[in-house]
Amino acid sequence: GVRLLLHGLCSNTTVKSLDLKGNNLRAVGAEALGKLLMQNKCIRSLTLEWNSLGVWEEGFSFFCQGLRANNFLQHLDLRNNQINHQGAAELAMALTQNTSLQELDLRWNNIGLLGGRALLNCLHSNKTLKRLELAGNNVPGDILKAVEQALDHNQDREAILSEAQNQVNILSKEVLSLKDEKNKQFLDFVDTVDKQKEEKARSEKMSAARVSQLQEALDEQHSIMNSLKTKLQMTEAALALSEQKVHNLGELLSAMKQEQNCVAERHFRELQQQKQEGADREGRLLHDLSAASEKNLLLRNQVDELERKCKVQQDQLFQVKQDLTTTTAELKLRAVEAEERLETEKRRFKQSLEDMESLRVKEVDRMTQNMEASERSMHNRIQRLEAIRISLEEELSQVKAAALSERGQAEEELMKVRSQARLEEQQRLEHLQEKLRLMTESRDEAQNCCVKQKEMVAEAQAKAKQLSLYADGLRRRLDELQQDLDSKEEEKVTELSKVKVELQEQIGRLEAERAAQDGLREKIAALERQLRALSSNHREALLDKEGEISLLLEKLRMKEAELSRVREEEAQRANFLQNAITAFVQGSPLGTHSSRK
């Protein structure tokens, strides 16, 4: 029945506690229990009280093999199972490799001195067993005390390890949170840079469109100038024939030109100072223009009369035309050169943007590689520390079996050492908290820097809007200038020069904007350097924490070495006392009297 029951439980995944108390289990039951422990991974508690497992050595050995292979059972009750010192030795061999059992009840068996020693020796390698009951087994009191001390040491060790793991988890969470925040900040920074690039591209497109519009306006103005020049040639030919009328007309034209120049200069100055005054002066200029147009009409009538005499001076007109053609060719060449310069500047700007993007991608790759290398080094260090810790624990377990007497003094010393260790740990925790506070302050400073950068970007956007508004104003001014050109055919040469000056000023402003953009790029590079410095400081803080953890481990090793020395001295004293007592008992008269009997 037991075989069938346990065979069914081998594949069960829900039963966590099994009670087989008082079922007279023997060799077959022990073998079935061994198979169950080898295959089942859910049972946490097993009660086998009032059975006869220890009588059958082969079955009990098979049961011990199953216990050795199991790493899920936590509570085992083997009371009243007639287990002798050999069964205890097999149990000890199983416990050396088991890493899950926490409570073992072996009361009311026949373990004896040898079995107690075997169990005591197994506790040197087993660090998970917290409770071991050995009452009613004829085990000496000194072995029971040693077992209790080993179990107390296991409990203390687990408490220290749990605290250290909690601290490590807290630090890892903080490190992960800092990494996430830095990644978010970096992504926000990249987004802002991308947005700035998009805005720059938009502004470049708008500027290119505006430049094209200005070029079209210039072409129209060139055509108008050509037509005006042809008309001027005709008028000059007519005026050359009529010398007498030419003097009068020249005086009138010079006066009109001077008046128009004065009016134009006043008009531009007033536009820069106040818009209202500009409007008033525009009315005056319109007035003057109407008068000039009337005079031009009179001059045209006189020119129509003088056209008959123009045939004689066609040769002179031809020469003048050639001069005009040469001047127009020069103007076209300058326009082509200006276009080529604009194209070259555009290409340089695009190349600089591409270089900046490539540098940003490379820096991101470097940052990721550095982070991966630091994580690998941290994992390697943790593995090394764990290996050292395991070796040291094995050495401590081998040394601690010698402490058997004078437990009170050792406990007092342990309490003092624990209090000192707790005080040191509290101080270190306070120091770590201060470091964390400093790290949070540095993080807040980085966030403030990012906010300032965003404000700078907003200011740059506002400046770009202002520049767009200024460009719209320039367009309006160009429209007004075109209207003035329609009304003032003779003054277009001077106005073209002024337009060229304005274009040069715009080019200078664009260059100033480019310089401002270069300054923003330098600021971005400085912020990236600050981010690198913050990451290096964070790595240094992590290294400091690792050094503190190593110092704590070294202090624990020193304290454990001191405890081992004290226990060795206590063991030597106990051996001396035992030898003295045995010698006293053998040499006393009571001992001789008992031997005679």
Write structural notes for this entry.
By secondary structure, the chain is an all-alpha fold. Among the domains are: 1-139, Ribonuclease Inhibitor (Leucine-rich repeat, LRR (right-handed beta-alpha superhelix), Alpha-Beta Horseshoe); 463-508. Helices cover 83% and strands 3% of the residues. The chain contains 12 helices and 5 strands. It has helices spanning 2-9, 27-39, 57-69, 85-97, 112-122, 141-241, 243-273, 275-306, 314-399, 407-487, 492-587, 589-596, and strands at 17-19, 45-47, 75-77, 103-105, 131-133. It has a 5-stranded parallel sheet with strand order 1-2-3-4-5. Strand 3 (75-77), helix 4 and strand 4 (103-105) form a beta-alpha-beta unit. It is rod-shaped and about 165 Å long. The two termini are 56 Å apart. The model is unreliable at 590-597 (pLDDT under 50). Its main location: cytoplasm. It is found in: Cytoplasm, Cytoskeleton, Microtubule organizing center, Centrosome.
Write a short abstract of this structure.
This is LRC45 protein. By secondary structure, the protein is an all-alpha fold. It has twelve helices and five strands.
List its traits:
mainly alpha; 3% strand; coiled coil; single chain; disordered C terminus; Leucine-rich repeat, LRR (right-handed beta-alpha superhelix); cytoskeleton; 597 residues; LRR_dom_sf
Q: How many DSSP-defined strands?
A: 5
Named at the architecture level, the CATH assignment of the domain at 1-139 is: Alpha-Beta Horseshoe
- Assess the beta-strand content as a share of residues: under 5%
As a percent range, the share of helical residues equals over 70%
Protein name: LRC45 protein
Pfam family, one: LRR_6
Subcellular location: Cytoplasm, Cytoskeleton, Microtubule organizing center, Centrosome
Organism: Dryoscopus gambensis
